[in-house]
Input
Amino acid sequence: MRPSLHGMTSRVLHLRPRTTTWIAATLLVVITLMALFAPLIAPFDPTALSPADRLQGSSASHWLGTDAFGRDLFSRVVYGARVSLTVGVGVAFLTLLIGLPLGLIAGYFRAIDAVLMRFMDGLMAIPGILAAIAIVSLTSANLGMLMIAITVPEIPQIVRLVRSQVLATREEAFVEAAVLMGTPTRTILWRHLMPNTFAPLIVQCTYVCAAAILTEATLSFLGVGLGSEIPTWGNIMSDGRIYFQLKPSLIFWAGFLLSLCILSINLLGDAARDSLDPTMKRKES
Output
């Protein structure tokens, strides 16, 4: 029997209340609120230069000290959360927006499947970070192009996942009945097949979001991401690596929040998988 969309939504909203899940959710909510209310939380302009205050330690005015250009480190770390979460959520949305219809088409139409999946195999053969560097290098290094550069290598994962779900579902009795009744192909794809892909897609999108945040930080750290004047966790660590032995906090706080953010998203993804995957429930029982 075809699973109802309401039933799958209910399972998504009722993840197992494990301690790690709640801790991860709390951390992610705190980081998200920090990003949303950055102008209210940050005491200084994260881009304001103050050479006279460069490389200061923690103080009442500069809680985490200042960097080599005299910029307030706490303000830059807070604003860095905005870029990371924007990239993570944006890449996950774009990947889903492109990969879902392509996966549905590849799984349902056998003639298109062979050509489309060979193209996806070609994309997967290129390391994601190298593909992102190539795209950014050939275009302008703004936030939009950075998100596109990170999205392209992630698309094959969604396409292959959706395709596998469609291949397993299109032989079911309810799909065959819809075909025999003359139901339009578009309706079969979007109303009968697509809901069966939601559970694994939700889990996969959490991993794509975490991977996108890490890739953005890596690109910025390597100097091929956003401009160094833009406060991102990768840029903060890149600017501070020269002075790491003198002042480790220039890298530590940005790296610490980056790790917490990625870990929280991955833990929530694992919780969603455990809740939505029937085989995992049988193992636990």
User: Anything to note?
Assistant: Residues 154 and 184 are 30 Å apart (CA to CA). The domain at 23-52+61-253 is CATH 1.10.3720.10 (MetI-like fold). Confidence is low (pLDDT under 50) at residues 1-16, 280-285.
